[in-house]
Amino acid sequence: MMLLTKTQMKTYFLQAISLFTILIFVSNCKGQTTNGLSNTKTSVKLEPKLKKNYFTNQYQEAADNIHNILQDKAGNLWLCATGDGIYRFDGKTFINFTTKDGLSSNEVWSILEDKLGNIWIGTDNGLCKYDGKTISKISFTTAKTATSKNAVWSMMQDKSGLIWFGTTEDLYCYDGKVFSRFLDNNNILNNQKLQLKWVQSMHQDSKGTIWIGSGPIADEGVIAFDGKSIKSSKPNGDGWIRYIIEDKSGKIWFSGRNNGVFFYDGKSFQNFTEKKNIGGSILADRAGNIWFDGGEKLNSNESDGGIWCYNGKTFKNYVMPFSLGNYSVWSIFEDKEGNIWIGTRNTGLYKFDGKSFSAYTEQKTR
After folding, report:
1. 281, 255 in Cβ contact below 8 A?
2. Which 3 state secondary structure label does DSSP give 323?
3. For every one of its 366 residues, what pLDDT tens digit does the chain have, with 9 covering 90 and above?
């Protein structure tokens, strides 16, 4: 399958085309491999130039967003920008890393810190790894395939230590030495002949089940892996699952691209009908609240915008008091101190400390 160009990808998101997931592999992932990490010769020592106390929005395109947020073991925040590479924030200054520093693309979709402290960076043009000193380009090299230009939509590390990569073409796992393609494991039952392409989200729940959210084009819905077989379903008719989270009670929440939010209570799937027109990005915080994207507020006929907090009984809406707050939310993240970070369309960044919002984006005119 050919990768969409950056322009085509942005068009898909802006027009909300419904044609457009997280396998977390357990220790029995044993696809054949011949070699492991294949680093290109473009590994570059990081010498970032930008150091500022605000996040600089380059406004490359209005469709750009902060697609993902990570906090590493040292407490730094990492921001995936789908146009400006990645930013690292130590609480005082932002440092910007781009293709000039070794990234394979400035369009970054996913990020993961593994148990050894390496930062894995998924772009629309392949996988990179930051070891604390340099950024290296990584190829997915197995016995049957070798590619470095696969868009990496999602990543996760399971309880056994295996790292999973959901890409446009395949689902891969890495055991610390070699890559393997999940579907090359003949011991896994795949009665539905699932292809596991365009994997957009993954989560391993507290009971060990791996949940995979299928992305655009593939449209395979929610996929569950119990260690022996994979099974797909579309509980609310939505084939594109953008986010998967688990709340404090063990309930698994799914956010579909077209038909809203639903959850799995351990026995069955249930549609979340308590409130309409919310969904998109979702977060389960440590206190047990569920946070939802309120949608893009363009006029009185649209949703209420901002973000919503649901405590299991009531909803509360928070509208960001800044012009960029009118843009839809693409990422919601809780840091170690309990602050809620919000990344929006048009590359806006905000922090909510439970009482008020702070803007971390330098607003520029075109």
Report:
1. yes
2. helix
3. 334 444 444 444 334 333 333 333 333 443 433 334 443 333 334 444 444 445 555 445 667 889 999 999 999 999 998 888 999 999 888 888 999 999 999 999 999 999 999 999 999 999 999 999 999 999 998 877 778 789 999 999 999 999 999 999 999 999 999 999 999 999 999 999 999 999 999 999 999 999 999 999 999 999 999 999 999 999 999 999 999 999 999 999 999 988 889 999 999 999 998 887 787 899 999 999 999 987 655 444 445 577 899 999 999 988 776 654 556 788 999 999 999 999 887 778 889 999 888 888 765 543
Q: For residue 281, give the nearest of 146, 87, 117, 80 by alpha carbon.
A: 80
Whether 353 contacts 347, CB under 8 Å: no
| pTM (predicted TM-score) | 0.83
Q: In angstroms, rounded to a whole number, what is the distance separating the alpha carbons of residues 282 and 284?
A: 7
SS3 10: helix
- Give the C-alpha separation, 261 to 220, whole Å: 16
Beta-carbon contacts of 245 under 8 Å, excluding residues fewer than 6 positions away, are 203, 252, 253, 282, 283, 284
Q: Rounded to the nearest 5 degrees, what angle is found at the Cα of 31, between the Cα atoms of 27 and 35?
A: 105
Cβ atoms 21, 216 nearer than 8 A? no
3-state SS record for 15-56: HCCCCCCECCCCCCCCCCCCCECEECCCCEECCCCCEECCEE
For residue 76, which of 104, 103, 97, 102 has the smallest C-alpha distance? Answer: 97
Residue 182 in contact with residue 170, Cβ under 8 Å?
yes
Q: What is the DSSP letter of 7?
A: H
Nearest residue to 78 via CA among 101, 103, 50, 110? 110
Taking Cα atoms as reference points, which of 193, 186, 184, 188 lies closest to residue 144?
184
The helix/strand/coil state of 199 is: strand
